[in-house]
Amino acid sequence: MVWQNEFISWNPQDLCGIEKFTLPTDVLWKPDLTIEEMTERDKAPPSPYLTVYSNGHIQVENDQVLVSACRMRVHKFPFDIQRCNLSIKSVIHSEKEMQLFETFNSSTSTKWSQELMRIQYEWLFIGMTVCNETVDNFGFIQKRVVYTITIKRRSILYIINFLLPVLFFLCLDLASFLISDSGGEKLGFKITVLLAVTVMQLILNEILPTSSDRVPLIAVYCIGSFGLMMLSLLETIVVMNLRGRDSASKNNEAEKNQSLSEDCGDKRDKDNNKLIYCASLCDVSSGETPSEQLPVAKKGSSNQLMEDFENLSDELKELVKTLTLFLNLRKEEEKPGYWNRKTKIINKVFFIFYVIAATLFLVFMIFSWNSET
Fold this sequence. Notes:
Layout: E1 2-4, E2 20-24, E3 33-35, E4 38-40, E5 49-53, E6 57-59, E7 67-68, E8 81-90, H1 106-116, E9 123-137, E10 140-153, H2 156-175, H3 185-207, H4 217-283, H5 294-334, H6 338-370
Antiparallel strand pairs: 1-6, 2-5, 3-8, 4-7, 5-6, 8-10, 9-10
Helix pairs in contact: 2-3, 2-4, 3-4, 4-5, 4-6
Domain Neurotransmitter-gated ion-channel ligand-binding: 2-154
Transmembrane segments: 156-175, 216-240, 349-369
Membrane topology: Multi-pass membrane protein
C-alpha cells in the first residue's frame, strides 16, 4: 500500500543522497482500509515499520492470510470455475477525502500472483483482474479497488472417486440383462447395484457445497443414473411376475395330466384282476378227469387265448396313449409359454430403450459440463 504525504519531501542531494528511510508505523498517519469480504480478522502481526521516500510517497507492506466470503457457483461441479472478489475501501473516508487507485494493472497482477503461488492444491489460479469502482452507500460515496480472482477446481480427483464409479455401476446394470430371469440372481444383483449408487449419493451430499441457486449437474448425473437403474429393476420385477404366470399354468396342467394317468392305471389294474380271475376258473376242475375234460379244455383254452390277446392289445393301446400323452407333455414343457415369449420381447425392447436412453443422457451431461453458460 502506497500513499502520498504532501507535507514530507526533500532533495536527496541535500541529505547525502538519502532517498528513503524507515519509521515506526505509529509515527505517521495511515489510511484506514478494510476488505469488505473478510470474515475473520487477520491473526498475523502487522508490519511495525513504514518506508518514507523523498518524493513524499509512504509505503507499508503487510502480509495477510485472509478468510473471505465468496459465493460459490457449483452448477458445473467438479468442472466449475469460481470468481471471488476482494474489495478494498476506506472505513470512514468518502470519495472527496480519499481516492483509491490500483497500483498494477490486471496482467501485471496476474503475473505477479502466479510467481508467488508455487504450490497449488485443490484450486488452480487462472488470473486476476483489477478495477476501480465508485459505490454509493445511502448517499455516502466512496472509492474502492476490486480484485477479481479467477480459480478453477482440480476435477481429476472427483472424476476418479465419483463420476467413474457411478458410470461403472451403470454399465454393470446394463450387463445384468445377460443374467437369466428364471432365478432371483438378476433381481438381487440389480438391488445391490442400486444400493451402491445410493451410497454414492450420500457421499455426494457431504462433498457438495450448498450455496448454489441452481441444481448441480453432478446431482443430475447421479439422479439420472439412479432413475435408469430403478426402471431396469422395475422391468425385471414385471418380467419375473409374467414368467411366474406361465409356471403356474404349467403346474396346473401337470396336475391334470397326472390325475388322468392315475385313472388309466386304475382301469388297467381292474382289467388285469378280471383276467386272473377268469384264468383261475378255467384251470379249476369240477371233479372230472383230465381225459374226460380234454376236448372241452382244448375248446376253452382257445377261447381264453383269444380273450387274453384282446385284453393285451387293449393294454398296449392304453400304454401307447399314456406314452404319447407323456411325450406331448414334455414337448409342452420344453416349449416356451405365452408369457415367456412376451417377456423375451419385453427384454429386447427395454434393452434397446435402456441403451439409447443411457447414451443420450451421458451425451447431455457431457454437453452441459462443457457449455459456457
